[in-house]
Write a structure and sequence with these properties.
Order of helices and strands of chain B: HHHHHHHHHHHHHHH
Number of helices of chain B: 15
Structural class of chain A: alpha/beta
Number of strands of chain A: 15
Number of strands of chain B: 0
Structural class of chain B: mainly alpha
Distance between the termini of chain A: 25 Å
Shape of chain B: flat
Oligomer: heterodimer
Strand order of the largest sheet of chain A: 2-1-3-14-6
Number of helices of chain A: 18
Shape of chain A: globular
Helix content of chain A: 40-55%
Distance between the termini of chain B: 35 Å
Amino acid sequence: MGLRKTPAAVVAFGTAAALAIAGCSSSGSSTSASTSTSSAPAQLTVWRMGASVASQVTWMNNIVAEFHKDFPQYAKTKVNVVWVPWTSNTTEWNNALASGKNAPDITELGNTQTPTEASLGVLTSINSYVNSWSGKSGLVPGMLANDTQGGNIYAVPWFGGVRGVWYRTNQFKAAGITSTPTTWAQLVTDAQKLMAKYPGTYGIDAITDDTNAFASFIWGAGGQIATESNGTWTADLTSPADQAAIKWYVSLYRTYHLSPSKYIGQTELGNTGSTSGGANTDFGLGKLDLYIDGPWASATMPANSVDKSDWASFPIPSENGPNPAPAFAGGSDLGIFKTSKYPQADWDLISVMDSEPNSTSFANLQGFFPPYSSQLTNGPYKSSQLLSGFAAAASNTQISPLNAKNWTTADTGKYYIIPDMLKSLMNGAPFASTVAAANSQLQTVLNTGSES
Amino acid sequence: MVKTVRGRPGSISSPAGPPSGQAAPLSFRRRGALWIRRHRVAPYLLVLPSLGMIAALLLWPTVQIGVFSFQNYGLPQLVGNGPTQWVGFSNYTQILHDPEFWLSLRLSVVSAAVMVPLTLVVGTLVGLLLAHLGPKMAAFVSSVAILAWATPPVSASVIFVWLATPDGGIVDWFATKLPHWLGGGAQWAGFSWTNAALPAYTLVIALVVWTAFPFIAIAVLAGLRTIPPELHESARVDGAGAWRTFWQVTYPLLKPMFRVLFLLSVIWDFGVFTQVYIIIGELGQRDEYNLGIYEYATAFQLPPAYGLASALAFILTIILLIITVGYVRASVKEGALL
């Protein structure tokens, strides 16, 4: 019966996405008649991920104005921005590709999703455009390689970011914490001090559905989630280092009671599909003392957040210090959707969105880092109270295996392997067998893309 | 055409026909009419339009799902990036060997086994109550009940999620205020109803019963109105209490209706999707899937596996068919169905 119901659900989703259009169109008053507009598209649709944010809409309006100015042939081209929730974007891409309706021309993608989507045939190869692009040489090394498959480039990096731990300087002062923690033991002690000083708050959010953050604990114990050799993945969750990390993370809830039961099964933004009640809301309202997320989370905090001027960050500690745990090198790419009829126009718009000054202003707007090396080394990030911790975390990053071709399937697609494992453990499942089962499942899915 | 068919054999030649006296060949229309009558096809012609609709909207998709269920049909096949291959029964064996299938089947069966009787009992009780109320009170109670029934599933689910949210939801607040001997206490503060199957399905069952009982109540009320009042009256005169009257008079008379209500409830409650999808927080919680959600995730979660999900849809249909056909057969044997 479920299958018969789904088309309606899918249509509803699509409609919701279409309704969320944050229209950005120019006045179209250009008098330039020199270029023919017959080959120019009437409209380009850009899919942005997340919830519509006013400052980003303004930024996009400026981009469109620049696009029209730099490329007079598109003076009459409208640019529509559709905001798609992160949690359903893979479904939305599949549906757009499958139905051929309401498809984007340009889409933002999480950098871990690009390899999967490229292999599924969702993206157009953009080799010729990128190779003649002036911005190519200035990109942070490795970022473009993540978007390349079999010699074909499928997307360009737009911005990057790392997760760290959010805290409040005034709370640390009041609880008598003089320096930010650099080991797990210190992290627990500090969270306990904060909970004691602020009764009724939660110490730290041990959520289960954010492997991008949880990976830092595995790496911070010296472990790996999975390693690749000659194209074959070996899952590593049963190694002593991984087990120590998993055990410690689960103990934040079960042993230390620093994290509430409601975070079990939640992402850093709460239950999938809900817009409140998540760890981000709790931190904003002062109900959570330490919150693990990237600097971009400020856009998701509630409007009535308290003590904003005291917000600060430190890198996720490693097990025994003193150096921070490696951070997951997250970020977004821009790619051209397979079904788009105007790849040249798409690329022209991407080249404006992703130029060095524009991607930098966009990154600054929301606490990301631009994909250009020169901006990272000379940028203003190290001096900002909120960003300095994240900037420190950005100096030591890792992405594998979170960019493996089948990672999305294993982690947020069909299987939710690590989230489900953490959830079961927090709900009291036996440790050894649960981890072993997750480990073998992870290895199978990473290698084959499905369970059997 | 219909009119011609209805005519008696002798009246074939109508005033509009060719001049009589000649063995003129019958017109095409008339020959058609004759053929229709001789072969008694008129009834079939009459049901043809509805059959056509059903075939286009139901049978054809079913056939296609049947075909997909024997293929490796996924996204590459759908958009033409890969060849469609016949895989025999491997989709079916894969499902039957998947522990997740059995887990979701168990959740579906157990939750339906609680929902169906609960819905029927609550609905019947409210129906009996309505029959005993004065007109004003009956109008009030039935309109309130119908409000619950008319609430769209999505809105109702969101309301229940709010009621039970760990952040100041009224359910947790109320549970902390309950006295200890009723199971209340501080342990309910911030209790999460969605992070494990048992509390999540408790909420789902409450929600489904809340939205489904008014239909049963109205149906029972309508049924009660068809029972002559003398029967209840004489039962009362003979000294039967409410309990006995119900089982000796009301229930036997309304038995066929109860059977239909039971059957409908089983079909509806076994296929609950929307409420579960919203309450468990969409697709992140694999240990809280019921069959419908599992099927949806199989079809549309990355990587989409339409073939596998089609096989699953067939298995689901067969399970429901076994339940309903078995039940209908038993009822027919008893001679009790309608």
